[in-house]
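ingest -> fold -> write
write: protein_1
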Amino acid sequence: MRSRHSRKAEPVLGTSISREAAWPEDDTMEPWLSNPMEKLYADYFYFHFTNRLTPQGRNGCYICYEMEGIRSPTSVDRGVFENEFYPKPRVHTEVCFLNWFTKLPWAKTLDPGKKYTITWYMSWSPCVDCAEQVAEFLKKHNCVRLRIKFPRLYHGNKPKYQQGLRNLDAAGAELAVMCPEDFKYCWDNFVDNLGWSFWYWKGIRWNYHVLDEKLREILCNPMSSLSPRTYNFHFPNLPFASEWNNTYICFQVEERKNSSPKTYYKGVFRNQCLSPPVDYNVTWYMSWSPCLECAEEVVSFLEEHENVSLTISISRLYNCDDEDEQHGLQLLHEAGAQVAMMSPEDFKYCWDTFVDNLGWSFWYWKGIRRNYYALDEKLREILCNPMSSLSPRTYNFHFPNLPFASGWNNTYICFQVEERKNNCLKSYYKGVFRNQPSHLQQGYPEEPLHAEQCFLSWFDDKCLSPRVDYNVTWYMSWSPCLECAEEVVSFLEEHENVSLTISFSRLYNCDDEDQQRGLQLLHEAGAQVAMMCPEDFEYCWDSFVDNRGRSFWYWHGICWNYHVLDEKLREILRFRLP
């Protein structure tokens, strides 16, 4: 418990305390002084507010407070609090301030529709108990914006004190370590400095950076849960929510080793432990979809950690009509992340799992299911649009023409479309589609879409006209399955103005008679079916891969594998199955 000796004299609000009153000659324990004081003495400030990493003897705690707009719209009130000790019960300085503030006549008439800013410059960060009381205060006073700055972390390496800071952060308090400029501001406004300039002690900026990094590390650890108020404010799936500036992730992580669950984590992050032999299934429930910048970072992370699979369920789409943000979602989808809108069942699951709900049942707000369907349709539209290019890593992983590639479960189509009218080239499109795999969304199966189906849906909606001839070319990582082959054949029969050429890297289940039948149906319907030759791989690298000027690398066996697979395809097309 933080404590200090009492002072002897009782100051009047708006006056400084004399040194004699502060430290009597006999140093006896006398009744405590009234809070707040107007200013600190310079030696008190330098002693108690130093940001040394291992200070000794700093048992007291001070708050230099600043309140804006409390007494009147333009008022700025300042003062200093310290923790109480003898003969009263021990009361920390944060609680002293809160007790005093709630008794102010102005505090009882605050307008709930406005925001009032209170800033604390504290000599120590709050302890666990005080953090809990401050969080409760903020819950009751929604109109108060509290900024807390401190030079040192109180027991910053102990988990329960770290959790106290995270709870404060979750309650909406803005926490920061005091920078050198903050110390000067306090010196100028809260210290009886006798006109002296502030003296920057040795190591002040270095210590700030060390402590700031520590605080960021603490706050970047997950919160255990959200308050119901925070959840109900930030997670509703409103079509328009332009003023919601914070993003929350409710996450759960399963470690799997040898196909058996090993460890389970869950928690919550707000915007502000990995082992290579272990597979991780990570699920995010987000209040906003990721922006392009974050999507790119997530994609880089997934590319570096192939043992991590990520499912992202989102309440709302961030700037969903912006092409950059759409591209971010497409990049996530391309990288293997399963992206979906949160269904009503997902909201209830989050309420039950991630919210400190005090036993209350989840309340389904008006329009929750209708909004879900509208946003889900929009997301599907975004993800069904083609990607502009592949990353070199994705191309080199999914397109090599290996004779046996049983673990490659995704299919990519690099396509180009030529529009011709009166034998003249009219338009040209190119891009990349990937299959959308099936997954369980809180127990409800989502239907998969194969890459061929994604292309046909997009092509039919965006391009197709009966008065234009189309030459369509596909470069595929796998040959089509029977089901997709039948759909493509039906499409070609309905649209005689479309000619299709399909080149693929590998044969899908080439010894299965059903899959062979699919290739024969395509061939009979007029589609030109062929294996990708080495020159096709180089063409795709140059045309569909974000290669940044790098030349294509012919992997070992590319020519041999091509001839083996080409002979197998010719054999399939030569012999018609009954």
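write: protein_2
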Amino acid sequence: MRKRQLLPYIQGRPLPSTYQDAIKSTVSSFQEAKRTLDWFFDISGFQSSEEENDLPLPDRQKLYIFQDDDTFPPHLQTIPWADQNANIFNFTRLYDTIVLMFHAYYLDINGVEKLGPDGADSMQALEDRNRTLHSEASDHWWFQPDNMFTPVNVGLRDDWYTDAVFAQQQFTGTNPTTLTLASANWIKLFTQAAQGNQAVLNLFSSAPANSFYVQDYSYFRAAAGLTPTEDITSTPAGGAVHYGCASVALFYLPPSGQLHPLAVILDWKGSLAASVTIFNRRVLPTDPTDSEKNDWPWRYAKMCVQISDWTRHEVTVHLTHAHFVEETVVVAAQRTFPSDHPVYKLLKEHWTTTLSINSLARSVLVPKVVMPLSAFTEAQIVTLVNHEYTTFDWTGLYIPNDLDSRGFPLAELDSNPKYHNYGYGRDIIRVWATLRKFVSNVLVKNYPGGDAQVATDSWVGNFCKEMQSSMGAKMSTFPTVTTLDGLIDMVTMCIHIASPQHTAVNYLQQYYMTFVPNKPSALYAPLPTTLEALNHFGEADILNALPVKAGQDQDWLLMAQVPYLLSPDVEESMSLPTFAKQAAADSDPIVASAGKILQTDLVDLTAQLTKISGELDDQTKEYDVLYPDSTAKAIII
């Protein structure tokens, strides 16, 4: 164990001797670290716990300042403005204390009994171990704490590795937001790669239009500052070499709606000739499934896709597009809106602890967890984060625009059986409509002059400029709002990112990622460089690519722990129905009226989403993450 100076307010913990103790210690120390930052942000005025503590705008403009340090995208400068020139407050020391308090046992444990899967000699052994840990964690005395294996996880399914479960995760998993209609160029390239495979060529020529979709991670190298053929690899201090990939997965979506993985480019290196492409032996979702378990080359290919998606989910969809983008909204709004402005009133309840959790992410979670687990180096991750931030398409990601542009027509989501399994898409469009109705009910009454009144609202104009400015949020795609509809959409998007969007990509992590083989963060052996080499892969090669060898168990533990840390149940006080209840009791009669309507709408929404979940083909896991009771009103974790 590394040496620590345990000050009176830092709780010391002995080095854990069991897997469960390690999990418990990491969870509780993470919670302590978060509480410490919550406390600091409270007393500093960034996130006051007092119900009515809105400072005058001039004071908030001094308190809320954008910091752009060339590492992370623009974010809150966290030294209180009154102390900036006094040299009294050293915020760096607080961060050092937070790091000290956070027991991430990736760094602290060596040789702990039962820490990881050391010695596993088969995939079946890993599945059996997962079942044992779940059984032990879910069948205990009431006074014993739960751990990450207490809830069910995907590894408890006998079919977790199948094409059907893999495909369904693109629709209802941790990242259901990036599956996109395949471009003509990708269809052309996959057709070239399929030469000699008549079954696949027949499908390409006979399938209805718009039947092929991709998960496209081919941009990773350019976005991370690598050359087209440079290997994605990193070696964390004292750890094993990690290997990454920029996969491209091709899916077939037949009229029946059973999404099916058809082909995978393991690691796109700029051309087909420089990349390895493999096609599924099961060309159709109705083909026999008896060979799936032992089709190791194809299972390896799907694992490469999951590793690529680990990066896109954690770094892009979750960290950057939710946490970091929403933080700029908070800072810009605090700097530009008076506290009695209707937009400020609509947004402020969706900022609860967002600033402090983001501060914790920048100080601890990213450098101490994400970076050590990733196959990208620290510098490459920073470059990737900033690329994803600068290319964030604000209006393009409005849910109606996003779904339509990715090949999921709004008018057909419910009526066309082809789309019936897209639980996220069918849910999120309804959640968006519900929140937009609430926002509209408030803003329409506050802007009786309509577009003309919005166009002359200097506060709205200043907010847009602050989001766009090179001295502010640096978000070039942020709209210049001049119409009432534009304002309603913009405000809905601010709430959407903080509430349902973050909920959708955060709270399923424990289920899909605690069982590491389903979605590891990196490979632990080099990728095959030819199709011939891949076709010779067996079970031993899959195991060799996972962190199951002696000395790698710390990585396994951290891969499994972090999803558990980030997937607690949403407390009732932080849920959307509670937000609606509070809005219905607001002193502003316009907000109160809209809140009462929202309460009723959320009850109706729950019924609609429950019905949609029951219509999905896969009924093993209820898709309930966006039920209003399960949706957090803000980014609180």
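write: annotation protein_2
The radius of gyration is 25 Å.
Strands lie at 66-67, 75-76, 180-181, 212-216, 233-234, 242-243, 248-252, 260-265, 277-279.
pipeline exit 0
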